[in-house]
Amino acid sequence: MSTRIQDTFKKAGSKKVMSLFLTAGYPTIKDTVDLVLTCVESGADMIELGMPFSDPLADGPTIQESSNVAIENGVDLPIIFDMVKQIRYKSDVPIILMGYINPVISYGIETFCSEAAQAGVDGLIIPDMPIDEQDILISHSQRYGLSMIHLVAPNTTDERMQLVDQHSDGFVYCVSVTGVTGARDGKSVSESVDTFIDRVKKNIRKNPVLVGFGIQSKEDALRISAKTDGFIVGSALIQAIKSVFPRNTWKEEVGLFVKNLR
Predict the structure, then answer these.
(1) What is the pLDDT of residue 180?
(2) Tell me, what's the pLDDT at 1?
(3) pTM value?
(4) What pLDDT was estimated at residue 191?
(5) Residue 79: its pLDDT value, please?
(6) Spans of the chain below 50 pLDDT
(7) For residue 210, what are the β-bridge partners?
(8) Fewer beta carbons within 10 Å, N or C terminal of the chain?
């Protein structure tokens, strides 16, 4: 398991860990590294860097659109690995690559894990690869010191949650609602998520838990993550970027959005 991820949770203490999702190559390839560093300087504890894919099953329209833009910009896995290397010159923030299994298989699972680790990646989230079919991916991720992070959702059984806990070694990604990513009304999400989180806490004992899907503001984050170790924001951040790019001050405005979340 990545020591950077472990250390992040240890250092956080009673403070909520804030993980932010950014699509690699969005809004441009050359801006991604600066965008990550801006988010870190503004309070992000971890970064999930999305690997754009043409058929993102778990992503809502906001992240789908950002992926399409990034693909049109020409982003690919070697470019993403180079981004991580550039970030590593300036920051020790944990970096998790999040994406779909097809590009990983096409690249070669062992080559992917090896090059990701060499670049400075800490962990992987592959939402369309069930635990039952992950033996090869898990063996190579373990060999190269990459944490595997799995998801649980409201329709995940208790037994399955325990299996996820057993096979995860960074944290467990708690999907607050069933469905695709996307900013939702935070109050409605928090009302439906309380009993689910109680069930998660009973079954996830080994790993920290971060909650995501549907967080738009600091108030949402505090309310929805009250019983967890932290929260993840993706679609709302991508939407914030879209709303200010390409103004001259767009990065500063994104930084302010992140500070307000923190």
Answers:
(1) 45
(2) 59
(3) 0.93
(4) 60
(5) 98
(6) 179-184, 186
(7) 173, 230
(8) C
| Domains defined for the chain, CATH in brackets | 3-261 (3.20.20.70)
Cα pseudo-dihedral 88, 69, 147, 9, rounded to 10: 70
DSSP string, the chain: --HHHHHHHHHHTTSPEEEEEEETTSS-HHHHHHHHHHHHHTT-SEEEEE---SS-TT--HHHHHHHHHHHHTT--HHHHHHHHHHHHTT----EEEE--HHHHHHH-HHHHHHHHHHHT--EEE-TTS-GGG-HHHHHHHHHTTPEE-EEE-TT--HHHHHHHHHH-SS-EEEESSSS------HHHHHHHHHHHHHHHHHH--SS-EEEESS--SHHHHHHHTTTSSEEEE-HHHHHHHHHHTTSTTHHHHHHHHHHHH-
User: Which of 31, 48, 115, 229 is the catalytic position?
Assistant: 48
**Strand ranges of the sheet holding 17-23, from the earlier edge strand across to the other edge:** 147-148, 123-125, 95-98, 46-50, 17-23, 230-233, 209-212, 172-175, 150-152
Looking at every residue in the chain, the average pLDDT score rounds to: 91
Q: Is 59 a catalytic residue?
A: yes
How many whole angstroms separate alpha carbon 42 and alpha carbon 22? 14
Query: What was the pLDDT predicted at 168?
Result: 92
Cβ–Cβ under 8 Å, residues 167 and 132: no
Q: Of 31, 45, 59, 165, which residue is the catalytic one?
A: 59
Give me the pLDDT at residue 132, please: 83
